[in-house]
Amino acid sequence: MHKLINTLAAAATLATGAAVLTAPAAQAVTISGSGVEYVFCSANQHNNEISYYDSYGKVEKIVSLNTPDGNAFCGAIEVSIEPDSYVWSSISNDDSRYVYAAIYSVSYPLFSGSTGAPPQYTLVARDESHDSYGGFNYAIAG
Asked: For residues 2 and 64, what is the distance between their CA atoms, to the nearest angstrom?
């Protein structure tokens, strides 16, 4: 469990300036925490279309992912959300051979501000897609 928490914490520290855009939702997941972290990766650093939900609704953006991670570029964004909200995310790129999307539920321990306790990250959905031709490629997590 400790290794899982460390792994999730490492994923949480991926690019702090990442963004997101849209694709059709297959299904939604329920977030039980007070926040959600979306992680996106692509073999192509630029022109990634991402979508996600925050407390105001659906957000769509075209972004560059700035953090190298092996053969991909990744980024993450953490947003506040009402507990028991339904969320999904997606990433697509016409010129990428690989895309990845993941959703983490973020729970903050009681009194975490005064005790310095780190938030808990729980993976609730993920999807990835490989396209050997590098054509339209998308991943939907939710």
From this structure: 32
First to last CA, the chain: 24
Give the DSSP per-residue string, 33-94: SSEEEEEEEESSSS-EEEEEEETTEEEEEEE---EEETTEEEEEEEEE--TTEEE-EEEEET
pLDDT of residue 141: 67
The total number of residues shown for the chain amounts to: 142
* Three-class DSSP category at 30: strand
Q: Which residues of the chain have pLDDT under 50?
A: 1-27
Given its phi and psi angles, is residue 134 left (phi above 0), alpha (psi -120 to 50 degrees) or beta?
Answer: left
Triad 97, 103, 107: Cα angle to 5°: 155
